[in-house]
Structure formats: structure tokens, C-alpha cells
Amino acid sequence: MLGVAVSTVSRALNGHADINPNTRQAIIEVARQLDYHPSLLAQSLKSSETHTIGVVIPDIERPFFATAVSGIQQVAAGMGYRVIITHSKESYATEVSNVQALVASRVDGLLICHAHETDNFDHVQPQACRGIPVIQFDRVSDEVANSKVILDDWTGAFAVTEHLIQEGCQRIAVLAGFDTLLISKQRVAGYVSALQHYGQPVRKEYQRHINFDQEEAAAALEQWLALPEPPDAIFAINYVNAFDLIIAIKKRGLRIPEDIAVVGFGDEFMASMIEPGLTTVDLHPYRIGQQAARLFLEQVQQKEQFRPRTYMISGNLVVRQSSLKGKGSRFQLSI
């Protein structure tokens, strides 16, 4: 329309100083009239960068993951990156599909927290992701040699179990996820270590592995209550299952914590609102998201010199009424 070269239009729209001011203004005005916007895909093909980060989480409805994404976006936006968010709904097949779609969209990096179903990690290996940086957070796999942000699950589990022991509990059960999950292994290991440290027996009948399902949590409770010596406390490694247990225990007409104490792992707003308030570990999901984004940016900046590293975040033990049997402390502890 203006009779100028494509390169002139490009330089004008990108703010180059070597364009006559009148020509630049004319080009900008025509672009406005035509509602023209540069093609991000075309720009990425030329520069091999999209300034976009792909994020895969298990469930956007869970406050933990939503908060982690908020931390990712805060850091990414500060460095000029956009964020594309997908969620797997705990499905391995959906997780793989999301990763493939993001890689095909030429994201500059991938931040991922794996689904409960995921037990194969070929889709996040370097060859599958075309060499783009991949950062795992929260639920990670050691099968992939990349940077990770993990929780100090062992210490957190030791702390909540220790707290129950100090409150006078002698038969402590653990409701865990599949034993293939790293977080499940670490939290059960911390639980076992605390029992051993305080000279309490480690009883297999007090350990249940489920798919974090409400019905499975209720079924585990029924199996425990049918034992000759039922537990007097339950540690749920997933805070949602701790809520499930509190509801199921109340339906049985039992008192919390007098008959059975309950503790969880993950401090979200419902933990303080449920009755009784849930003793749990604050996992700091916002910090987890921030650190995952920072590790990606470090890798982009350092390029070939970058070496993958694992960053560990410690939580805080938050003591509430669900575990206070009357013999222990009444304050928040740091772990």
C-alpha cells in the first residue's frame, strides 16, 4: 500500500533507528488500519526462539499446582516470557500428548510435574523434547538427567510422625501413594525413620498404598479399624486424603484427635477451615514455581556451560487441632 520494501516495514515495526520518522509513522498507521500483527511463528522460525515456556501440571483445580504456576508466571513475566499451561488430570497419556503439543509449538522450555499414572519418562528425554530445557518440579523422576525442584519430603514426613509420637500416639498408620512415586517413597521413609528413632515398631498392616482416591482412602480406614489394634493416628502423605479421612472418621462417630489423630502433607486454605483444623506441612508451592522458572532461565543463559542441578525446598510443620491429644506442644515448628 505504501510502496516500500518488506524489510522497511519490518525495521519500522521493530523500532529500528535507521527509518525516516515520517515513513515509520505512515507504516504504523497502515498497520493499525489493517489490524496487522506480526506472526510469532514466523519470528520464532527466524530466531529459533518463541519466548514461551510450556508448563504441564497434573490438575489446575488443585490450589497447590495453581499456586506453583503463579510463581512460574511471576518469574517468567519478569524476563519477558509468556507461559502456556496444560494439565494432565493425572493421566499419563494426556501428559505425553501435552508435552508433544508444546514441543511442536516450539516452546523454549518445558516445566513439568508428572501425573500419578506416569511411570515411563521417555517423553521428557532430550531426544523427545528436541533438546529444549526440561525442568521437573514436585513429582520428578531420576531417570531423566535434568534440573529438578523437589521437596524435602523425608524431613517433612519425619517431623509430622515425630509430632504424633510426642503427642502420645503409639500406633501410627501411613496412607501413601503408589510406591513407584518418588515422593511416596521419601515420605514413607521419613515416617519409618521416625518410628525407628523413637523405638516404635514398624508394622506393615499400618501401611496402605492407594491412588489418592477418596473411596480408597475410606476403604483403608475400614481395614485399619477392623484390626485387633487399630491405629490411634494416621499420616496421609496427600493432604486431600487427610480431608477424606477426617470425613470418614466422623461418619463412624469417632472423635478427632481423641480416638484417631490425623495429619497431612500440604498446607492449603481448607486445612485451616476444616473442623478440626488439619496439622500438616506447608510446602511453599509459590517458591517451588519460582525456582523451577529460575532454573530454566539459568539454563538458557548459561547454554553449554549449564550443568543440571537439583534444588530442594524445605517446608514448615503447622500444628493444628487434628493431632493435639494433649501431651505435646502447641506451636508451629520449622523443619
Automatic annotation (TrEMBL):
What UniProt keywords are attached to this protein's entry? DNA-binding, Transcription, Transcription regulation
Superkingdom of the source? Bacteria
Check the record and name the PROSITE patterns matching this protein. HTH_LACI_2
Q: Which residues form the HTH lacI-type domain?
A: 1-47
Give a yes or no for keyword Cytoplasm in this entry: no
Q: Which InterPro entries match?
A: HTH_LacI, Lambda_DNA-bd_dom_sf, Peripla_BP/Lac1_sug-bd_dom, Peripla_BP_I
Short name of one Pfam family for this protein?
A: LacI
* DNA-binding is among the record's keywords: yes
Report what the protein is called: LacI family transcriptional regulator
Instruction: State the species of origin.
Output: Hymenobacter tibetensis
